[in-house]
Amino acid sequence: MSSPSPSGAIAGPSLHSSPLPAAGQLQVSNGAHFDVVIIGSGAGGGTLARHLAPTGLKVLVLERGDWLPQEPQNWDAEAVFQQNRYVSKDPWLDKHGKTFQPGSHYFVGGATKMYGAAHFRLRQQDFEQLAHFDGTSPAWPLRYADFEPWYQKAEEMYHVHGQRGEDPTEPPCSGPYPHPPVAHEPRMQKLVDDLRSAGLHPFHAPSGVQLDEAHMAFSRCRKCNCCDGFPCLVHAKSDAEVLGLRPALACPNVSLLTRAQVKRLHTDASGRTVCAVELERDGEPLTVSGDVVVVSCGAANSARLLLMSANDRHPRGLANGSDQVGRHYMFHNSKAMVALAHEPNLTVFQKTVSINDWYLGDADFDYPMGNIQMTGKTNGTIMKGYAPLETFLMPGWSMDKIAQHALDFWISSEDLPDPNNRVTVTGSGQIQLSYTPNNLTASARLVSRLEGLLDRLYLRQHLVERQFYIANSMGIAAVGHQAGTCRFGSDPATSVLDLNCKAHELDNLYVVDTSFMPTIGAVNPSLTAIANALRVGTHLVERLRG
C-alpha cells in the first residue's frame, strides 16, 4: 500500500514486489565465512533462510540456478508442458544405465516454483508403523505430535487455505487454518455434492496461495488456471522464493549467491567438521565456509553431494559410514487421471477438492490406498504435453474439445522405503537412480475405487452412458515428490541423520529437505519439508546463540 510522504503528498506504489537487497548481499568473496551456509533454496533451504533471517546470524544461501524470469511464457502451456522451458538440463541414468531427463527445476525457490502448492499434513498414522498390502511402512523416530506445532507455523508462513473438520483422516490440529478455504466453482461444488451423496467426505484441498476472495480487487492471486505446474507470473503462489528467500533478503545479514553449483564439501583432518564448501559460479571456482553447513538440494541431489564429497575419513561419502546415503528413495505411486463426461467442466481454478476416504483402506481392502485430489484444469496443450505419443496425431482443437469435458484427478499412493531403491553417482558425478516400483496393488485399488465411484455417480445422475478414462502414470522422471535418501533416526547404523537432522558422523553438517523422511505417506511432502525446516531452524538458533 502507498503511504503519505513527509510533505503530505500521497506517494505512489513501490516499483518492486519485495524489498531490493543490497548489492553486497548478492556477492560473496572467495574464502568468506558465515554462521550458516545453506545449499539449496527450495522448501527446506528457502524456509530455513527466512526462519534464521531475524536472528542476526550471518547466513549464505547457495543456489545452483538463477531467478526464474517473470515473462509471458510463465503462463504459456505449450512453453511449459511441451517445450519444457523451465526444466533444468541435468540428465540422470536409470538402473539400466539409460539416460533420462528428470523434471528438475533449479531456480531460486527450487521445485516449489512449479509445484501445485498443495500443503497437506501427513496423517497421524503415517508416523507409526503401518501395514500395507505389499509390505510395511516403518515408524518414524518422532511422532506427529512432535511435528504438529511446526505444521501450524508452516501453514501460517505459506498462507495455506483450508477448513478443519471435513477430512475424516485429519490429524489433531492446534489451531484453524490461517485462511478460509478456496471456494469451489460450480462444477466442483456439484462434484462435492455428488461425492457426499455417495457417502464420501470430500474436503477443501489445503492450498498455499496469496488469495483474498472477500476482497478480490486487492488480492494478489487471481484464481487463474496457471498455478499447478506453472510458475506464477504475479508471484501469488506460496513458493519458497516468494515466501522464503525474498523475505529473508529483507534482512542485511542474509546473502544469496545464484548460479552457484556446489561441487563438494571438505572436512578437516579429523573428518568431523565440514571446513569448506567448494563451488563453481559462472565457471569460476569459489570456496566459502560456515560454522554450520546445511544441505538442502532435494533428495537425489543432496545424496549426490554427500557421495561426491568422499575423502580419506569418509571413503564412501560424507555421513555414509552406514552405507545409507542415497538409499530408500521414494516419490509416490502417482497417476494423472482425466475422466471425460458429456457435461462440460467450465472450472478455472480446479484444485479445491480432495478425498481421503480410502487413505487408510476400506471395508473391502484393509490396507492404505492413498489420496485423491484435483489437478489444475487440463487443456488440450497440457494433455498433449502429458501424453505426447498417444496424442501426436490429434490436432490441438480436438484436444481442447476433449479437455472441456474433463475432470482432472491426481491419484497418489505410498511407495514403501526399499534400500535397493537408491541414488548413486558415476565417476563424473552423474546421478544414477535405481528404482523398482512397489506397493502397486494399493495404487490399482485406489484407481479402481475412483473409477467405480464416478461410474455409479454419473449413471445415477444420467449424465453419460459410460465414463471414459485417460490415465498417465508418473515414471521416475517425475521427481516433484522425491524423498528419502538421508533418513533421520536414533541409530547411526540404520540412519544418516540424528533427530535434529544433523549427520551422525559430523558435528556441523545438517540435511534439511525431504531427504530426512523415513516414509512418504500418500500426500504431497512439501508442508512436511517446510515444517521440518522450521523445527531444525529453531534448533540451530539455540545451538548458535545458546
TrEMBL record:
Keywords: FAD, Flavoprotein, Oxidoreductase. This is GMC family oxidoreductase. InterPro entries: FAD/NAD-bd_sf, GMC_OxRdtase_N, GMC_OxRtase_C. Residues 108-328 form the Glucose-methanol-choline oxidoreductase N-terminal domain. Belongs to the GMC oxidoreductase family. Residues 477-533 form the Glucose-methanol-choline oxidoreductase C-terminal domain.
